[in-house]
């Protein structure tokens, strides 16, 4: 198991350190946060290759961190020329294990561990080539760019902590990257189908099928292809025959099918799930598994099946790294396996979430917990009515809707306490939670959430005397403007229902009318105090504005 991963100079990962969990690790973050790059780094350092191509031949100028490359070119011709040549270094330190004795040593390139099992891979310019490398880079700069490193000067070194170069992958370290993207043919699935043939048929049967296949090929040669002549310009005439090389062996024509339809002709979801299941089964002996956004192309029911497949694999002796944009996958696999990335920075890992809350979100996996993860600031509200009213109130006070100022308003029912605990475990910035008092003292509700409150996480609840839900709260604060409120939120022609009854029976409708009404009319209305306090907390106004 990898206990520490260090990456420097590789794409967006400028100076990256991560201590993943044993077992399952779920890596989330916004687009371009560096999640895929982390998987690439793990694959490079553990396999010495990436996506099937050797590490030495795969190097591209785009692999180097752009900030480091730009700084290097700026220094050319100055006193610091050549002092900071861009390099890539990826280090994987493993947990103590007797099977990893071969890679255990004191040659940690960062000198962090005196004696530990580990592997590292580096891309550097050797001293003998440095003058020529710098000369070519100066020429690139003098020509006006673009600043692209000449990578043919770089050496790739793949070594164990014992100091020896790695010729073939060390025993005890194995890694498989599972590609779940639909494609016409999958090598993993084809090999899986082919292996079943070898298990089900004995040698005599295999020879019999091969003989029949050869007879059919010979018949096609005699009866169809023998009469066709191909004239190659200037090279004379050629005939046609069936290919008899090993790649056209009959076993290479075997595919999985369902009800007569080959797998590649089935839907994307069926392909994705089958590829994932087959790859996990094939990788049963692998110590490290990598899955990138396995939820692509899957509906809710298919996602359920996929999560089950991954969860079963996570229960074995493998370390699994999953990147995802699906809150369902995140919740079902467990929030306690979460690490959060942002802009290539070292991820923060969830370590303080209670087992009860982890279990809660596994059971109620529809909550969009990923919005909490990715939000800069968040407001937790009970339902759509509260969200619409908060949007209206925020726009009245700040002139913009919350999302226009980077604030995510999230419906969470009455799960404020759970999500505040989650936000606390994440170390999130400002989070405001709002709820109805439901005829309970607001201090009671605040007390339930108190362990997770701080100067950046606060709880707001309407006063008892102003009503148990948002409707009477809105009526109470506007008791001198009821005619205006009624004219905005009622249906046209509806003047018989009492205002509070209408609003209670048409919750989302009245709130939507309020938000969509002409601002010159709706913004003469007042905001319930607990919503106003939440606005001032989540988006503090400048003192000058508050004093106006």
TrEMBL record:
OLD protein-like TOPRIM domain residues: 374-438
Pfam families: AAA_21, AAA_23, OLD-like_TOPRIM
Residue span(s) of domain Rad50/SbcC-type AAA: 5-68
Occurrences of domain ATPase AAA-type core (ranges): 257-331
GO molecular function: ATP binding; ATP hydrolysis activity
Protein name: SMC domain-containing protein
């Amino acid at each position: 198991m990898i206990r520490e991963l260090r990456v420097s100079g590789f794409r967006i990962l400028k100076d990256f350190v991560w201590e993943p969990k044993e077992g399952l690790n779920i890596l989330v973050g916004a687009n371009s946060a560096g999640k895929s790059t982390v998987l690439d780094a793990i694959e490079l350092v553990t396999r010495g290759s990436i996506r099937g191509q050797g590490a030495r031949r795969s190097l591209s100028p785009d692999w180097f961190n752009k900030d480091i490359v730009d700084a290097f070119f700026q220094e050319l011709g100055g006193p610091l020329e050549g002092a900071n040549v861009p390099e890539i270094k990826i280090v994987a330190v493993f947990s103590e294990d007797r099977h990893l004795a071969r890679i255990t040593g004191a040659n940690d390139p960062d000198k962090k561990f005196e004696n530990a099992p580990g592997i590292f891979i580096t891309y550097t310019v050797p001293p003998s080539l440095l003058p020529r490398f710098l000369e070519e880079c100066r020429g690139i700069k003098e020509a006006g760019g673009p600043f692209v490193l000449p990578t043919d000067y770089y050496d790739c070194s793949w070594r164990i902590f014992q100091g020896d170069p790695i010729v073939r992958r060390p025993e005890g370290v194995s890694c498989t990257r599972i590609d779940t993207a639909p494609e016409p043919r999958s090598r993993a699935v084809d090999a899986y189908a082919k292996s079943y043939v070898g298990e089900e048929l004995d040698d005599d049967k295999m020879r019999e099928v091969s003989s029949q296949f050869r007879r059919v090929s010979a018949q096609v040669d005699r009866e169809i292809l023998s009469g066709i002549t191909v004239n190659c310009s200037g090279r004379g005439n050629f005939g046609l025959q069936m290919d008899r090389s090993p790649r056209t062996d009959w076993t290479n024509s075997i595919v999985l099918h369902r009800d007569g339809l080959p797998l590649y002709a089935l839907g994307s979801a069926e392909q994705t799930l089958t590829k994932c299941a087959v790859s996990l089964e094939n990788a049963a002996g692998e110590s490290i598994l990598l899955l990138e956004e396995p939820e692509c192309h899957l509906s809710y029911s298919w996602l359920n099946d996929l999560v089950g497949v991954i969860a079963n694999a996570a229960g074995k002796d493998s370390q699994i790294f999953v990147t995802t944009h699906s809150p369902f996958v995140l919740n079902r696999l467990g929030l306690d396996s979460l690490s959060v990335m942002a802009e290539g920075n070292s991820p923060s890992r969830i370590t303080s979430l209670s087992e009860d809350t982890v279990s809660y979100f596994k059971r109620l996996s529809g909550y969009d917990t990923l919005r909490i993860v990715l939000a800069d600031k968040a407001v937790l509200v009970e339902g759509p009515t509260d969200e619409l009213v908060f949007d209206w109130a925020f726009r009245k006070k700040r002139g913009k809707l919350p999302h226009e100022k980077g604030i995510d308003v999230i419906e969470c029912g009455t799960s404020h306490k759970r999500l505040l605990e989650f936000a606390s475990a994440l170390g999130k910035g400002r989070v405001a939670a709002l709820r109805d008092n439901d005829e309970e003292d607001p201090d009671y509700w605040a007390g339930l959430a108190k362990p997770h409150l701080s100067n950046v996480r606060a709880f707001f609840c309407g006063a008892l005397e102003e009503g148990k839900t948002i409707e009477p709260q809105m009526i109470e604060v506007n008791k001198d403007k009821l005619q205006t409120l009624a004219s905005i939120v009622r249906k046209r022609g509806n003047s018989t229902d009492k205002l509070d009854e209408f609003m209670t029976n048409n919750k989302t409708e009245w709130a939507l009318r309020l938000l969509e009404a002409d601002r010159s009319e709706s913004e003469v209305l007042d905001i319930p105090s607990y919503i106003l306090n939440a606005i001032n907390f989540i988006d503090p106004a400048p003192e000058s504005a508050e004093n106006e």
